[in-house]
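User: My instructor asked us to take a sequence, write out its structure as tokens, and then describe one feature of it. I'm not sure where to start. Here is the sequence I was given:
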Amino acid sequence: MGNIINELMLEKKKIEYIVEKSKSELRKLGETEEGIIKVLVKRGKPEFYVKNDSNTNDYKYMPKSETQKAEALVRKEYYEKVLKNACVELKQINALINRIEGNNWEKAYETIGKGKRMIVEPIIVTNEQYRKKWLDEEYTGKSFGDNDIEIYSENGERVRSKSEKIIADKLFKENVLYRYEYPFQTNYSGIIYPDFTILDEVRRRNIIYEHFGLMDNPEYANNAVGKIQLYMNHGYVLGDNLFISMETSAIPFDGRVLDGIIKQIKN
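Assistant: Let's start with the prediction itself. The structure tokens for your sequence are:
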């Protein structure tokens, strides 16, 4: 249903443009003498005839000296017809949009009340409903220690490093929906906390994004490799629904890597 509404809205915008364009052209013509114009083509050139009384069939030939006036009458007739037809079509489109939106089956679920929505699932979950449910889910992330540095993203959550703040802020700016340190239940290693769990709205799945910021630390690097393998053992594929970035003390985080990841996620 959403696609139909979108198509109708696009058509509405086009008709609204045509209405305004027709009015603009009529204003440019200014005051034009009334008359019903007839154009005959003789030897490849137009000849103009006009009558001022709609009750007769007597057309009067317009000499070449009145060509400009004749052409103005032709343009006026055309733009008036376009304006009239476009206004009728616009009224019909608005009525159709209102009728569809007023009887939209998707809205039935939202109008039954919160308590009833806890009992019944919608027949078809729309993208908006899926996104809202994903955003509304409450969870408990990984706790912070008393001595951990306090860094907050623009989205308001506390993160563990400046690089993670850069990532969170970029995702937030690009309207990429994510959860920070959302718990991931593994089959044999208990719960782990990916840095970012991103919503893939089109495919309706979660994407995991890990940033490994201390890769010059051998123990940390080994743990990072183990974590990547753990995700892959759970069906995650690098470059598809699993993305990573890295840095060392000598090689800082490159934001262009994140730009590429966001572009791939959005496509």
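For the description part of your assignment, you could build on this observation: Residues 2-104 form a domain with the Helix Hairpins fold (CATH 1.10.287). Try explaining in your own words what that tells you about the chain.
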